[in-house]
Fold this protein.
Amino acid sequence: MGTNTTLGVEGSGGARWSRRLCVALGWSALALGASTAAAQDRVRLTDGTAVEGRVVLEAKDRVVVRVGSKDRSVPNAQVAAIDSLARSLRELLDRWRGAPPNSPAALLDLAQFAKGRKLSGEARTFALLALARNREFEPAHVFLGHERKGANWSVPQKNGSLRYEAWIERARDFSDGWRLESTHFALRSNLELEQACFALLELEFAYQAFFDWLGPELELQELLEPIHVQVHADERSYPGGSGNAGFFDDESNTAFLDASTAFDPAALVHEATHGLLFNTAMRTRASLGSIPAWLNEGLAETLRFARDGALANPRYDFERRAAFYATIHSQAPKPLDLGRVLALSVEDFVFSSHIGLAYAQSYTLVQFCLRGDERAHRARFFEYLRSCYLGKSSATAFKAALQTNERDFERAWLAFVRAGG
């Protein structure tokens, strides 16, 4: 479901509005640190000097480095080399794709690589994943700072230590669950250790897919503060209420997912996309962005259904289609007209009588704008999306950007959907 300052909740089989946000978030949206733009990246220039800070943008013509609280733009012609966390993370994920997933030694190699590239959260995650494969794998215990006590391993705690097996068991309670961090996400979960590690990797792959897809069009800047995510393995701890699959709460900058029945990585991608849209459009220095509900849901579903592949080893194909949404739209006795879709609110996706159509038509409208009429609308759609990032997201702005007769546009949209969308 879309972002909402009150609390938007996505349902499966009929959603309900819920305000039961009673689980402690564990992080404060107001306490993210004064600046995460520490000098962790280095851009070497052709004149032999270097700029240190955080690389927030690599565009066609320039590199932007955040140095302290200021951004410095460097023309590409002056750049000799770039060493950045973002590039290191991409290389790490590529190495993970090629590594033997069941080899603790290979996983620890990834942890060592991540540590050497200052990816401390990912380093810990891969070491934990090695232990999920073999809990007696000594090098991973040593890497994580665990202590050998007789025949057992113990995990240092604030007050003493805890036997490794007891530590694993304690994490089944969400309040004592896993707290895993990566470059762009902070995850809390009481999933099994392997699945929790996989969830964090899924989030980083979703981030990569989102930025690869929309980044060049929108010149999206690298996120320097984490998006918080909670994945609940039990319904009791999940704050969204029974029957609600997940939601994103912008006040705490947190995505929530109910995984009490099963962990669905595609559902996690959907909620993470809401977080990515919020953090790249609204939670910025300028705070100008405004993403309307239909676009928020349509883009989230587009990323969701672009995902395919094994858990923690996804592939994204933005030509992949959700055929059932085309069926819902094309077979509706009275589909929503364009004006109604453009005016959809968060509530329409929560407790209206047309939730199914709202999702279906938001998705098919995005798909039509991207691929319909032999992609005739694609460039203008991205122009509209850029205007949303500048706060101009109204129905009037959409119609002006798409430069089309509304009636003709609706006919072509429906024809596209009836042809399979």
